[in-house]
């Protein structure tokens, strides 16, 4: 127990507070502006959700409870996948190998903040519904509060145990030293679907035997703890076996051409194909497609259209922002190697910008094309959408040069960019929607301004000696 508190206090809480203090000292005004944007966007979400719930909302407790379980599993799954490599950090290895901490306590300590963050997000998403219930005169019973708290613990344990089971199974069957993210994610999603279907069937006993369901949840909680405890040692062992990463040999002579533009383009393609970040975004894209395709089977046509617009405006933008952010991150990580190429700034920057702009266009049109073919939702304004994607690509690349992207601030930067770009896009459409040509010129002018900022200010010598 002493080592558990030590890991939580020294590593988890210590690193979190240190990063927050560093960001607060380095970017005080930017943090205040980001906080103001978050509050504004969340206030708009609360008002819109509250109005929608008061008009057509579902007030049946079991239905809301199932929606809570669904969203919790969804966010827990995303949080565990994106934070899957935390245990490979040197701080965790040192404390585990030089202490008497148990494997199950170690695993829980490593994942405590990602799980807590997911439940905070779930709480913020369901806060308008709680407000709507209180405004409607519905009082929250102690029974449902207890049920929700125990369910949070059960879902956290079972989601973490499912991810550990899938990772151990894939490593036993395929490879013990390499990570196979796609196979692990598919298996993890399958287990989460089974868990949700199990809860959907078990919820039917609440109207008949509410106390029995409470006892049932307690039994699930104990079983989940035993399951997690049984898998923890093998899971930690598999994680440490994957610390030895096989580095593929790479030579610039293999892709060297007479054109420096084509050389940089091929280098970026190699980096794109080998980076784990892009595998994560590919999995997220597949999930968005599957989720959108399944909307008509669960929601009404009006709700489907509203959720589709929300996905395009926010969820899909996460992918469109994340990819060009890597231009600046790669530049900060590999400056010396880039300087040794001794090529022009134009060839370096333009090749990468065009590459990611083409990738973003492909993502957008493949998504809306699949949605149109499968569920028949048609989108309009593809020309303006292409120019908007150009702006978001160049803007994200500029932010990647300004801010050094890390695992700690990656989510913060992406959410801030989504909020800022959504407001900028909303203002441009509000002011210039009457003149399409002027709106197109505004998109191009803003894109050119961000590109010029990268080229003239942020992309420093000696790229060009």
Domain count, please report it.
2
**Mean pLDDT over the full residue set:** 77
Order of helices and strands: HHHHHHHHHHHHHHHHH
What profile does the largest beta sheet have?
Answer: none
Radius of gyration: 24 Å
Unreliable stretches, pLDDT < 50, 5 or more residues?
Answer: 245-255
Share of residues in helices: over 70%
Keywords: Membrane, Transmembrane, Transmembrane helix
Explain what you see.
The protein is globular. It folds into 2 domains: 30-246, no CATH class; 311-459, no CATH class. The chain is 81% helix and 0% strand. The longest helix is centred in the first third of the chain and has 33 residues, at 103-135. It has 17 helices and no strands. The model is unreliable at 245-255 (pLDDT under 50). It starts with a helix and ends in a 7-residue tail after the last helix. The protein has helices at 2-26, 28-56, 61-82, 90-97, 103-135, 142-173, 181-202, 210-241, 260-274, 276-293, 295-298, 301-333, 335-341, 345-375, 382-402, 410-432, 436-458. Helix 3 (61-82) packs antiparallel against helix 5 (103-135), helix 10 runs parallel beside helix 14 and helix 14 (345-375) crosses helix 15 (382-402).
